[in-house]
User: What shape does this take?
Amino acid sequence: MFDIVQSTMPFLLAGLWMTFKISVITIFFGSILGGIIGLLRTLNYRVINIPFGAYIHTLRGTPFLIHLYIVYFVLPQTGIAWLQLDAFTAAVIALSLYTSTYVAEIVRSAIQAVPRGQSEAARSTGMNALQAMWYVILPQALKLMIPPMGGVYVIIIKGTSIVSVIGITELVRAGEQATQRNPRELMLIYGMTAVLYFAYCYPVLRFAKWAESKYGTVRLPS
Amino acid sequence: MDWILDFYNYRVVEQYLPEFLRGLGWTVWISLISLVISLTIGTITALMRRSANPLLWRPAAAYVQMIRSTPLLIQIYLIYFILPTLPLLDRRLDELESGIVALGLNAGAYMCEIIRAGIESVPQGQIEGAQSVGMTRFQTMRYVVLPQAFARVAPVLMGQTAVLIKDSSLVSFIGVFELFSAGLEVLNERLMPNEAFLTVAAFYLAIYSVMLWLTGRVQRRLGGTAT
Assistant: This one.
């Protein structure tokens, strides 16, 4: 058993590195896109809210597996040259779009959770709307976003397991390939894969919980 | 009209409609059984986690953390490959059963957290009141605490159910036929990804919209917003 662990670990670790890369790139782009959508949605213009509401509803209402297949198989069918994506780009785009729906809702609710009095006070000291948002609302809202963003990050890490279907050798696929080399050790190899995921996700969940206990008091200013 | 047929050939979709509907039926059926399993597991583990006995709450907490920190796909693989090797049953579990067990176990951890929050939101006075009329602890839980807890978190539980329905698409990986597999079938037989996946997406969106509508109704019926 030990020699199997020893011989497959390098492959699994290479897979974990891929998982790490995809998840980091995704949380970066997903947060930017989601942050913009969330900010726009707090403006409460119908023209903005309806299309972005539909965007979030559509992505939330369909499995990520479908997004991945649509980005990877359906977009190239449109015939537009720059939509002929390779597997890695397709995976990152699909995951980022999926992530953005979560981030948008978090950003919106965090901004709305900051008491109205804060923005009113900022405006009454002569700040314009942008300054009030940047110097007063956002710093307070950002703290509230940390715990749920930890949860989103774990969702992304777990989501990367699905991109193995379009041929990216991340952790699950690395495990699958290892099982083909050692078909009798299925359970051990998938067990090791699970342990590696656990080692990546659990600290993030713990951090989110810690952040919640630390900044949770900010959530209810009375 | 030619460009529509080029991009999305609805005649092919019409031809495969029985397959899509059969897949839809299986998705609903798989989700329904997994939901029952997950609510049962969720309720039991939520009660275990509230116990003062470490022999009860530690395994429950470990279960929840393990499920939440690993992807569903790995859980499906593990159950599909492990369960047959366990000598518990006198027969092997097939793909469908493994898939349902994995989905139920996965959703159970999330249901546990939601139900636990629900139980904790029931005011202490309710428990004291129930005990002062002579109810045992079991009766208090069964007739006073749990009904209120479920009523409070019903909308959240339904939201998690919507996630469960989406997640059920992953059991196609171990060869279970459901809605997503119907799409894969169209892809494999006709090499038409647009018709396959846009149609499947529309079906999932329809299920989700129904769930959202139902959640809204339940929320209004029970009054207030539960968190």
User: Anything to note?
Assistant: Chain B touches chain A at residues 7, 65-66, 68-75, 77-78, 81-82, 85, 162, 166-167, 169-170, 173, 180, 183, 187, 193-194, 196-198, 200-201, 204-205, 207-209, 212 (CB under 8 Å). Residues 2-222 of chain B form a domain with the MetI-like fold fold (CATH 1.10.3720.10). The mean pLDDT of chain B is 90. Chain B is about 80% helix and 0% strand.
